[in-house]
């Protein structure tokens, strides 16, 4: 009898162990993986080597495939698409977990890694096959994209209107194998191409050169801007007519005024300094100090909402340039040799700024910054 019952007992033990293993493994899987829930976004932002690499960095993205969409030719080749004659656009197809990342967040990642204003190409890659586009798979995606782009336009961060097409998705053709994961498989060539393309230089100018280490999403910017005063950059003709020769040279041509021979280097009055072009509030006298350089110097800006930093190679060695966010005015540079509490020295050009005395701030529309002088 022992021999008869031995085999069923072994089988029961094995089945129990197998069930326990499967249950434990399932508990470790995310809910969406248990249910098999995924969604797809088809997007165009210029060279698909770059957009594929950038979208793969987003949490919740499962897979990104480079390919072609928008044309009628079946199974197009890279050579055919690159000719610009097939009506196809270089795209990526993003498979993502909707329980981890939303469709809007996927679009947010795309917009922060491309130029959505250029309908004639993308950086060094010219032609309709490189234009920005969103291929919506359903009406919900179309509605989300339409609303999000309208809000981005209102934000005004790109300084030009968005020119990204919304196209109904029909067919996706994967690109040749050598295009897939190009950034990973061809690091040297990819890095050289990306640098030479001008993509990152443009993105640094829009979002700041700390955009990767300290990312702020467009959605966060939109929420922060609600209720805030809007600042718009005038046309070049209006700028030229409103500025004197030195102001134009500094703000529009990235010039530098002479030290100890400028309006505010020794100004000790209480008030704020605003962009001479747009009026954006930039710096406060409460953060101003005498640096001995002959230029007005500050430990910090009033708000990061109105200043951005980029890397400047005009003197061969890299410097951190400071520009106004909406006016895109060249203001000066920031150095890491300042006093506490920041250890920074924002070395600005007087010609790039206009001083608003504390007693005039209310009538000029800057009452919300009077709190700076409470102490």
From TrEMBL:
Active-site feature positions: 47
InterPro entries, alphabetized: Met_Sox_Rdtase_MsrA_dom, Met_Sox_Rdtase_MsrA_sf, Met_Sox_Rdtase_MsrB_dom, Mss4-like_sf
UniProt cross-references to Pfam families, sorted A to Z: PMSR (PF01625), SelR (PF01641)
The protein's Enzyme Commission number: 1.8.4.11
Keyword tags: Multifunctional enzyme, Oxidoreductase, Signal
Enzyme class at the top of the EC tree: oxidoreductase
Reactions accelerated catalytically: L-methionyl-[protein] + [thioredoxin]-disulfide + H2O = L-methionyl-(R)-S-oxide-[protein] + [thioredoxin]-dithiol; [thioredoxin]-disulfide + L-methionine + H2O = L-methionine (S)-S-oxide + [thioredoxin]-dithiol; L-methionyl-[protein] + [thioredoxin]-disulfide + H2O = L-methionyl-(S)-S-oxide-[protein] + [thioredoxin]-dithiol
A molecular function (GO) term: peptide-methionine (S)-S-oxide reductase activity
Signal peptide start-end: 1-25
Segments forming domain MsrB: 236-358
Annotated PROSITE patterns: MSRB
Protein family: Belongs to the MsrA Met sulfoxide reductase family.
NCBIfam families referenced in this protein's UniProt entry, alphabetically: msrA, peptide-methionine (R)-S-oxide reductase MsrB
Function: Has an important function as a repair enzyme for proteins that have been inactivated by oxidation. Catalyzes the reversible oxidation-reduction of methionine sulfoxide in proteins to methionine.
HAMAP family: MsrA
Record-linked PANTHER family: PEPTIDE METHIONINE SULFOXIDE REDUCTASE, PEPTIDE METHIONINE SULFOXIDE REDUCTASE MSRA 2
Name of the protein this chain belongs to: Peptide methionine sulfoxide reductase MsrA
Source organism: Vibrio sinensis
């Amino acid at each position: 009898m022992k021999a008869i019952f031995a085999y069923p007992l072994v089988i029961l033990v094995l089945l129990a162990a197998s069930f326990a293993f499967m249950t434990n493994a399932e508990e470790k899987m995310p809910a969406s993986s248990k249910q098999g829930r995924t969604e797809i976004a088809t997007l165009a932002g210029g060279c698909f080597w770059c957009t594929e690499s950038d979208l793969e960095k987003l949490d919740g993205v499962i897979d990104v495939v480079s390919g072609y969409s928008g044309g009628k030719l079946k199974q197009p080749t890279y050579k055919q698409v690159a000719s610009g004659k097939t009506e196809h656009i270089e795209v990526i197809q993003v498979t993502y977990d909707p329980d981890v990342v939303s469709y809007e967040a996927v679009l947010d990642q795309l917009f922060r890694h491309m130029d959505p204003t250029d309908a004639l190409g993308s950086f060094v890659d010219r032609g309709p096959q490189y234009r920005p586009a969103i291929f919506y798979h359903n009406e919900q995606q179309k509605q989300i994209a339409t609303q999000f782009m309208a809000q981005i336009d209102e934000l005004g961060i790109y300084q030009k209107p968005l020119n990204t097409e919304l196209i109904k998705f029909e067919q996706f053709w994967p690109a040749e194998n050598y295009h897939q994961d190009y950034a990973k498989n061809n690091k040297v060539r990819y890095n050289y191409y990306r640098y030479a393309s001008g993509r990152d230089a443009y993105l640094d100018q829009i979002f700041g050169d700390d955009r990767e280490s300290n990312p702020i999403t467009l959605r966060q910017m939109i929420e922060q801007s609600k209720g805030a005063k809007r600042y718009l950059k005038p046309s070049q003709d209006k700028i030229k007519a409103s500025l004197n020769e030195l102001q134009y040279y500094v703000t529009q041509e990235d010039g530098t005024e002479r030290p100890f021979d400028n309006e505010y280097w020794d100004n000790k009055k209480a008030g704020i300094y605003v962009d001479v072009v747009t009026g954006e509030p930039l710096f406060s006298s409460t953060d101003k100090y005498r640096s001995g350089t002959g230029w007005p110097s500050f430990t910090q800006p009033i708000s990061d909402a109105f200043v951005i930093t980029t890397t400047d190679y005009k003197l061969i060695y890299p410097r951190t340039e400071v520009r106004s966010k909406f006016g895109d005015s060249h203001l000066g540079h920031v150095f890491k040799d300042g006093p506490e509490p920041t250890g920074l020295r924002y070395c600005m050009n007087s010609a790039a700024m206009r001083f608003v005395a504390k007693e005039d701030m209310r009538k000029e529309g800057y009452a919300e910054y009077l709190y700076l002088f409470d102490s």
